[in-house]
Design goal:
By secondary structure, this protein is of the alpha+beta class. Helices cover about 25% and strands about 25% of the residues. Strand 6 (about 85-90) and strand 7 (about 95-100) form a beta hairpin.
Length: about 130
């Protein structure tokens, strides 16, 4: 699968049967539809369930970019997650998944109270790639 930001082949990381597509060059992350919610479930992170996170997506004021969904290759829309602080991500118009620039997934995990093994896993992977 090619990275929407830099067209590099992404690495597939697996955590609790959830595939996380990770770009080793830019540090971005692709999650297929439903995987963000799975990462935020209490069984995976110890965090409280985040109800309606995806239902509250708001269209961003930023114009549509050039990033294309790695599944269908259609241009994605920028959207904002309703958490504090607001995080802007890219979403496939056909709901294939979500693109997170470097650090955005970690920010969401932190903002929603996700902790434990999932956060430790993400930190160990992403911190090694940030140098």
């Amino acid at each position: 699968m090619l990275c929407p930001a830099c067209d590099t082949e992404m690495l597939i990381l697996e955590f609790n049967r959830i595939e996380i597509d990770f770009c080793h060059l830019c540090g971005g992350v692709w999650l297929d539809e439903g995987e963000l919610e799975m990462l935020l479930q209490p069984d995976n992170t110890g965090a409280m369930a985040v109800s309606g996170l995806m239902a509250d997506l708001k269209k961003s004021d930023r114009p549509a970019g050039k990033r294309k969904c790695p599944v269908c290759r259609k241009t994605m829309n920028p959207v904002e997650l309703s958490i504090e602080p607001v995080v802007e991500i890219d979403k496939c118009i056909y709901n294939h998944g979500l693109w997170f620039d470097k650090g955005e997934l970690e920010q969401i995990m932190s903002s929603t109270g996700a902790a434990g093994k999932m956060s430790a896993f993400l930190n160990s992977v992403f911190k090694k790639k940030s140098n």
